[in-house]
Amino acid sequence: MRHKIAVTVDCAVFGLDQDGLKILLIKRGIAPFKGRWALPGGFVRRESVEEAARRELKEETGLDGVFLEQLYTFGSVDRDPRQHTVTVAWYALTHIAAVQAATDASSAAWFAEDELPKLAFDHQAIFDVARERLRGKVRYRPIGFELLPKRFTLTELQRLYEVVLGRDLDKRNFRKKVLAMDFLVDTGELERNVPRRPARLYRFDRRKYRALERGGFEMWV
Amino acid sequence: MRHKIAVTVDCAVFGLDQDGLKILLIKRGIAPFKGRWALPGGFVRRESVEEAARRELKEETGLDGVFLEQLYTFGSVDRDPRQHTVTVAWYALTHIAAVQAATDASSAAWFAEDELPKLAFDHQAIFDVARERLRGKVRYRPIGFELLPKRFTLTELQRLYEVVLGRDLDKRNFRKKVLAMDFLVDTGELERNVPRRPARLYRFDRRKYRALERGGFEMWV
DNA sequence: TCAAAAGTGTTCCGCTTACACCCATGC
DNA sequence: GCATGGGTGTAAGCGGAACACTTTTGA
After folding, report:
1. Architecture of domain B6-137
2. Among A21, A71, B39, B176, which residue carries the largest CB count within 10 Å?
C-alpha cells in the first residue's frame, strides 16, 4: 500500500501600480491557517496541473487568460500540517485593473511586495522564489509587458523595469535599447490631460517579437 | 472525497565521454512499459521530493551525492496509463565513471543523446526539456564541471562546452575567457603518456567561484 | 511664467571576435 | 622525424555606460 500525497497548485500573481510591484493574496476562510493571507491555489482535480492553476485563479480571483508559468514544486513533508502535500507553484502577471474588475471585492487583495502580511503554509518561500524568478526572467524575455496596459509610455515601461530589477536605469540608454529591438510600435497617440508635455503611447507587438525570437536574440535591459 | 493523484520523481542524468553527451536510462522490469527504457525514478514516499529523487537515483543507478536540480513538473492527466500521476522531474550531472563503478551492470545504460531508444511514459519530453535547460544554464553557471573528472585539461573543458552548446568555440578566446574569471586553478600537473605535448591539468575551485558569485557576475562562454 | 516630465546624441571603454604559428611529446 | 594536439597575442569592431539640455504641455 502506497503512501498518499495530496497535490495542490499555488500562484504568485504580480501586478503593478503607481506605488510599485504588488502581489495578490487571498484570505483563507478555512483551517488550517484560517484567517491568514495566502497565495491563491487549491487541490488538483482530474485535470493537468496547469489547468488546475488556471481554474483556481479564476475561482478565487476572477482572473482568466493571464500570463502563467510554472515556477517550482515544493515538496517538504511537513509543509502542510494536515498531510503530506506537494504543491506545484506558478507565477502570473496581470494588469491590476483586470482583478479589480473581476473580483467580488471579497477576500482577495493586493499587497506591496515589501509589505506582505504573514502568509499561510510556506507561501512566503514560494513568493521569494517567484520574486527572484521574475527579476531574472525579465532581463531576457519581454514578459514585463504583461504588467502594463495595452498602450503605455516609455517612462512607464522604464519604471516597470526599475521596479522589477530594483535599480535605476538611464533614460536615454533605456530608450535606445528598447526601441532598437523593434517589437515596440508607436501608436501615434499621445497621453491626454497631463500637466506636462504628453508622452507617446507605444504597444508591444507580439508578432514582431516572435519573429525576432526565432532569429535567436538575447539582449535585454 | 478527493481525486487521488500519485506523485513520482524522474531524473535525466547526463554524463560525458569521448563521443559526446550521454544520458543514463533504466530498463523497466514491470508494467506499464515493461521492457522499455525510461528515466530513473519512482514514487515519492514519506520524504521530500528531492529526497525521493536522490533515493531513486541511488537505488536504480548507485549514484550518490550528484549535482541535482529541479527541472519541471509534468502533470497531464493521461501521462500514466494506470492513474493520474504527477511527476517532478530533475536533471543530474555526473562523471560517467561514477556510474560504471556503482551500478550492478544490470539494467542501467548510457545512451548517446541523439540516439535514444523509444522511452516509456512522456520521458522523451522530459529529456527534451532537460537538454534545453542544460544548454541554457551552462552559459551562465559553471555547472559543466560536474561532468568532468576533478582534474581536466582546457581542451576537455572546451569540448564539453562545444558538445553542450552544439557549436564550435575558438580555442584562444575560450582559454582567455575561462582563465580570466579565476576559479580555475592550475594544478601544476601534466597529462601522462599522451602521444603529443602533454596538457596542463586544471581543477575548478568552488571557493573562489562562490566568492565571485556574491560579487554578482554574469559572463560565460 | 512656472513646474514637470518628454525627448534626444556623442564619447569612451571594455568585451567579443577573428585569426596563424611554434612547441613538446610518443612512437 | 613525423604526427598530434598544446599553447600563445594582437587588432578591429561593437555594444554598454555615462552624461545635460531643450521642448511641450497644463495650470
Report:
1. Alpha-Beta Complex (3.90)
2. B39
* Percent of chain B surpassing pLDDT 70: 93
Q: Is the CB of B176 under 7 A from strand D?
A: yes
Q: Looking at the domain that runs over B147-214, which CATH code has it been given?
A: 1.10.10.10
Mean pLDDT of A164-185: 93
Query: Which residue has the closest alpha carbon to D20 C1'?
Result: A172
Which string of DSSP letters, residue by residue, matches B182-216? --EEEEEEE--S-SSPPPEEEEE-HHHHHHHHHT-
Residue A107: the pLDDT is: 87
Nucleotide whose C1' lies closest to the alpha carbon of residue B171: D7
Architecture (CATH level 2) of domain A144-214? Orthogonal Bundle (1.10)
Instruction: Measure in Å the smallest separation between the Cα of A220 and chain B Cα atoms.
Output: 14
| pLDDT tens profile B105-119 | 568 999 999 999 999
Query: What confidence score (pLDDT) does residue B109 get?
Result: 94
DSSP for A193-221, please give it: S-SSPPPEEEEE-HHHHHHHHHT------
